[in-house]
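Box 3.1 A note on notation
Throughout this textbook, protein chains are presented in two layers. The first layer is the amino acid sequence; the second is a token string describing backbone geometry. Keep the layers aligned when reading.
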Amino acid sequence: MERFDVVVVGAGISGIGAGVHLQEKSPDRSFVILEGRENIGGTWDLFKYPGIRSDSDMHTLGYEFKPWKAEKSIADGSSIMDYLRETVAEHDLERHMRFGERVVRAEWSTPTASWTVHTLRTNGSRGVFECNYLFMCAGYYSYKAGYLPEFVGRERFTGRIVHPQDWPDDLDYTDKRVVVIGSGATAVTLVPAMAGTASHVTMLQRSPTYMVSRPDRDALANFLRKVLPAKVAYNITRAKNTWRQQLVYKRTRTKPEQIKNLLLGGIQLELGGRYPVQKHFTPSYNPWDQRLCLVPNSDLFAAIRSGRASVATDTIETFTETGILLRSGQHLAADVIVTATGLQLVTLGEAEFTVDGTPVDFSATRTYKGMAYSDVPNLATSFGYINASWTLRADLTCTYVCRLLNHMRDTGTRQCTPRLRPGEHDMPRRPWIDGFSSGYMQRVMHLMPSQGDREPWINPQNYDKDKKMFREGRVDDGVMHFTNPASTRERRDATTSGAAAS
């Protein structure tokens, strides 16, 4: 068994960021990054489907500490992987990483103030790691398989059916008829990417999604980078884009009809006055009740205008031998069907957790600042924004975790546990992500912790509020309890081992 001060689970955007923040803000702490797969990158290494790209700008999806310097701000998957590899190399993080270590169980012991983390290795053997603090950066969806609804008659189809999460290397769709089932970010990326090669691509959706077109290059960012130091230019662009994201989201809450009309008006201009935007691009909900889809350089609309792509809004009656029969009676002929039907969300990387021998039911807990759990010691989760770029919140969470670690060091305590105060057990229970109706969220919301009606028992999904909570809020706030004092020897040993590791 190997012993570290901190175990970080996951080597994607969140886990890599956690490693950098720990080195810079808590350099006395030793840490290891456990990754279940054989490479860094998480989402960006897993998904191989055509056209994979970011669905938000890289000046906010990138880290606060590493400027994005490429011309394109809406980046393809390989460029994002290059950025992550550069980050790992610049901060010498690979020496802290262990690949092929999938975390399956974690057990907290109060007497030893430690988590025992059990892993299943790629070769079938088992690993055991011990740490004082456990930082879960494993993302929010299952890497085993994507979400796939039951489709009547699926077995009848004689062509090929693929899910974007498991894209085959040998799939040739040249001059083939393709149907992409879905209308989220993956479908909106796939349709124009495949339309240039396939004979025709149909996006089959049960209901529309709000979409907005914007250039894949940020003109201001590229100008500033020419006249200012890279870090200064990046910080200005990041602040500008964060402000814009938050402004648009706030407007959707206060003036939903105004934003709705702007979005739909833009699509009508893209596709022409006769195109049935009401049918194919007008959702039944308000903007940002579900995620807004980005269309870089109007590529989806260009594919539709060219006739190489089309949209069908209907429900599936059954798969047939040669395609899909819709409830309206229309038949979509297909050689390839892509089920872009979403992700299968999970809690904390699908691992099991116990605290002093008692299994943890996270649905019975309250969320502390959207990153920790009532009565669960020394554990945090990095979960980004659903209404802005993921990394904005991941950076804030890392900053707060380092503040916690430093406070425990300074106070000689080994345990930090968020606990409800007297009278707070009766707080109203609100969903962990409130006001967001996407199916992939609603399917698992009952497994997640609940919010309360006051700080710090909230998950606001609001960058301005989070900045104040994570950067300015008191660490010793009367809710986070610091206990389990370390002995003099333990404090000396911890300092020595941490210094050696860094």
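The chain has a mean pLDDT of 94. The first helix runs from residue 13 to 25.
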